């Protein structure tokens, strides 16, 4: 009885996986995944890589044109309440000295 239980469980898992993949078996399943993968590559992956390469190429051209140009190497911390950007220790609030006598 115990051996039939795990066989049934394994069969249920295989059935679930097969159904979740579209219910196709064999060559049709492989062909459909190949078509889906090819479409995904040409619609999402390739354009993303091409855009990244183009941006890197433009950045390299810009850097080559002026090698002494200043380039900010650290990312600013967003601060929507104050000025929008913080690069270090805050100087203080804007109204810190107005209300004091």
Describe this structure in words.
The chain has 101 residues and is mainly alpha-helical. It has a domain at 2-64. Helices cover 57% and strands 6% of the residues. It contains two helices and two strands; from the N terminus they run ααββ. The chain has helices spanning 2-20, 27-65, and strands at residues 77-79, 84-86. The protein has a two-stranded antiparallel ribbon with strand order 1-2.
Report the strand count.
2
- The fraction of residues in strands falls at 5-15%
Query: How many alpha or pi helices?
Result: 2
Model regions low in confidence, pLDDT < 50 over at least 5 residues: none
The overall average pLDDT, rounded, is 76
Please give the radius of gyration in angstroms: 29 Å
Q: What structural class do you assign from the helix and strand content?
A: mainly alpha
Order of H and E elements:
HHEE
**Could you describe the largest sheet, including whether it forms a barrel?**
2 strands, antiparallel
Helix content: 55-70%
Shape: elongated
> N-to-C terminal Cα separation, in Å?
89 Å
- Adjacency order of strands in the biggest sheet: 1-2
Keywords: Membrane, Transmembrane, Transmembrane helix
